[in-house]
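Re: that backbone. Tokens:
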């Protein structure tokens, strides 16, 4: 996706978010928004009492829950999928989550760790990395780093990633 297309998509998403957030206001700024949005608020005007002096607006709690669900700060940085090509040949595919605060150098370690686990499970002495590549996949909501590796389980010693 080009930078211009990404900026246009960002502008459209910002416009939609502004219209949706405006649904809770008593008046909307334009006649078009009044025709598109419902006449009552989507989220009721309610506060969650936490203590005598602190209450959290319901819309803030919902927004925080949505952001937490989307970002998932406690989840793993990489999704690992494996596909057996034969009893001794395994294809590993790693995809990084969209929003992460690090983990860019993890793929070689993850591949080695998983290859070692597969070799032990299969009763082999080691593995050989036949193919290894790292790249970026462009998606609608941002790019993701991807890594693929083709691992051969062998009775010989371990051969590291070049």
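Recovered sequence:
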């Amino acid at each position: 996706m080009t930078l211009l297309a990404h900026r246009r998509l960002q502008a459209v998403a910002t416009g939609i978010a502004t219209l949706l957030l405006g649904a809770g206001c008593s008046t909307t700024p334009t006649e078009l928004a009044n025709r598109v949005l419902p006449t009552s608020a989507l989220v009721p005007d309610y506060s969650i009492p936490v203590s005598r002096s602190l209450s959290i607006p319901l819309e803030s709690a919902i927004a925080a829950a949505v952001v937490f669900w989307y970002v998932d700060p406690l989840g793993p940085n990489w999704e690992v999928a494996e596909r057996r090509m034969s009893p001794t040949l395994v294809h590993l595919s790693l995809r990084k989550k969209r929003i992460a605060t690090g983990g860019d150098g993890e793929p070689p370690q993850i591949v080695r760790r998983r290859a070692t686990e597969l070799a032990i499970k299969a009763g082999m002495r080691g593995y050989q990395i036949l193919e290894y590549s790292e790249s970026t996949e462009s998606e609608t909501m941002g790019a993701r780093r991807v890594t693929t590796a083709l691992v051969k389980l062998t009775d010989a010693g371990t051969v590291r990633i070049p």
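Residues 3-21 form the longest helix (19 residues). The chain has a mean pLDDT of 79.
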